[in-house]
Recover the amino acids of this structure.
């Protein structure tokens, strides 16, 4: 044996190169080639342990682990013979126990169980084995320790995949668990999920990421995270809550006390008018301060409830914020930005994403409602996505003011989906693009609606001097009208201020052919359309 193979770390690095496919769902490691690893474990002693660790690292359920127990304990049956499978219901076969579990059955189970680091949902790429109803209960009652998988770090526990076995999820909690994803599909399982969370402080207090997904779309359920649960998880860094039921004020208060929490995401699955929080504030004497929070995302909640939540909280380290809410009035939207300005640091916030929805259409919003966030001078990204007929009214002066307020911008997106061509009446012109190039030489992403007809291009071109942005390679112009203007003139103007642009994207058919001609000229070395 080569002396280099006596170095444990080197052997493990060699084993880690045996991998195929895309990254799985809950981890960044690449998918492994199980056949190659199995052969390596059987044929080379030096690679045996590292290969087995890699082979068992990630499992889709515990069917393979149960197969390592005594052969006299279990039998495998085709799934089509019965509908009593609780785990991985789409599997071609399932396991059932023929007798009670005895201590001797656990020897090989524990030998491999300690190698499992992640339990993932099925992805269709790997054939899996299901388990009958009684198997989970037998394992739960006969296990020799409270931690069935002592080194498990990632647990994806979804009722849709585990059915009646969902209630046994606590036996997978352990001191090594750092990420937990819980999926609930029925109201009956809501208290089971709450009980699972209640066990975290005692069984898995080192958890760093929690995802709670309530799949019962449109159903109202009384789901509340047990009090003091979140406050005890001092290492928690990310909390994602997707449910039509608002987060309790108690849970919100406990989250604000966590010293390591950097990501908070609250999303409703179907409602666009629900509250963000429920219950009275626990302490009205001072705002709740999320001292470590860097990313805040709220989707599917009422804009009024978002304002209320911002008014009672502070985010001194907030770097990125995303709101996707229902439309109230222009005043309430400006109120949201005012609350954001008051609750966040003007030097820390760098990315704002805001989406607003209106079911009736025809709503025009003045861009002046953004003035409360002009104080965020370190802003790098501004993405506004008003959908369903909500239109932003932006003119050239607005773009000039934004350039003064946000000199470091690298992403600017003003999206809009008009209902008919008659709604396309942009106020910004090609002169606005000149201001964009002048204000943001490092801009890499631009989406805006302009009117290419309302400008004297020759005069503008003469006055722009050496204004150049070489970073931008693509422009999305939504439904910008360009009829009546010679494509060559527009292309020459664009290439003079954005010399790297080679692609122009648009939405509807209006003006599409003429913008394509502009694009062809930009791509052509001779400066003429390609015929």
């Amino acid at each position: 044996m080569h002396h280099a193979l006596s170095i444990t770390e080197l052997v493990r690095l060699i084993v880690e190169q045996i991998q195929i496919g895309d990254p799985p769902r809950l981890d960044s490691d690449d998918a492994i080639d199980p056949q190659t690893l199995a052969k390596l474990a059987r044929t080379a002693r030096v690679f045996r342990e590292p290969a087995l660790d890699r082979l068992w690292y990630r499992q889709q359920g515990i069917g393979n682990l149960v197969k390592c127990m005594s052969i006299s304990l279990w039998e495998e049956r085709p799934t089509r013979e019965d509908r009593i499978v609780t785990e991985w219901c789409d599997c071609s076969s399932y396991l059932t126990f023929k007798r009670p579990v005895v201590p001797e059955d656990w020897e090989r189970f524990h030998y491999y169980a300690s190698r499992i680091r992640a339990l993932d949902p099925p992805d269709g790429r790997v054939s899996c084995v299901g388990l009958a109803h009684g198997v989970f209960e037998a394992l739960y009652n006969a296990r020799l320790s409270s931690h069935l998988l002592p080194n498990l770090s990632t647990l994806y526990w979804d009722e849709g995949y585990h059915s009646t076995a969902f209630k046994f999820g606590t036996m997978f909690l352990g001191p090594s668990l750092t990420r937990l994803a819980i999926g609930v599909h029925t109201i009956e399982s809501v208290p089971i999920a709450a009980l699972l969370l209640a066990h975290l402080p005692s069984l898995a207090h080192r958890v760093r990421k929690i995802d709670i997904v309530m799949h019962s779309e449109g159903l109202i359920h009384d789901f509340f995270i047990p009090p003091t649960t979140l406050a005890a998880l001092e290492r928690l860094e990310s909390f994602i809550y997707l449910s039509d039921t608002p987060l309790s004020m108690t849970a919100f208060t406990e989250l604000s006390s966590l010293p390591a929490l950097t990501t908070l995401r609250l999303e409703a699955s179907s409602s666009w008018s629900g509250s963000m929080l429920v219950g009275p504030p626990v302490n009205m004497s001072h705002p709740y301060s999320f001292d470590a929070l860097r990313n805040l995302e709220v989707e599917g909640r009422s804009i009024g409830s978002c304002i209320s939540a911002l008014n009672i909280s502070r985010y001194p380290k907030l770097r990125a914020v995303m709101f996707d809410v229902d439309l109230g009035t222009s005043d309430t939207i400006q109120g949201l930005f005012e609350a954001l300005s008051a609750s966040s640091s003007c030097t820390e916030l760098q990315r704002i994403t805001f989406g607003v929805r209106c079911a009736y259409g025809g709503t025009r919003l003045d861009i002046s409602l953004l003035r409360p966030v002009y104080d965020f001078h370190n802003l790098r990204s501004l993405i506004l996505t008003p959908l369903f007929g909500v239109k932003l009214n932006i003119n050239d002066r607005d773009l000039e003011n934004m350039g003064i307020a946000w000199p470091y911008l690298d992403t600017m997106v003003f999206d809009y989906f008009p209902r008919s061509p008659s709604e396309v009446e942009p106020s910004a012109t090609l002169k606005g693009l000149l201001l964009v190039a002048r204000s943001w030489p490092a801009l890499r992403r631009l989406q805006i609606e302009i009117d290419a007809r309302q400008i004297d291009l020759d005069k503008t071109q003469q006055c722009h001097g050496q204004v150049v942005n070489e970073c931008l390679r693509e422009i999305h112009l939504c439904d910008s009208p360009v009829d009546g203007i010679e494509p060559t003139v527009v292309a020459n103007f664009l290439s003079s201020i954005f010399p790297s642009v080679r692609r122009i994207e648009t939405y509807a058919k209006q003006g599409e052919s003429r913008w394509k001609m502009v694009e062809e000229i930009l791509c052509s070395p001779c400066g003429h359309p390609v015929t």
User: Anything to note?
Assistant: The chain is about 30% helix and 20% strand. Residues 58-177 form one domain. Confidence is low (pLDDT under 50) at residues 20-29. The first strand starts at residue 58 and ends at 59.
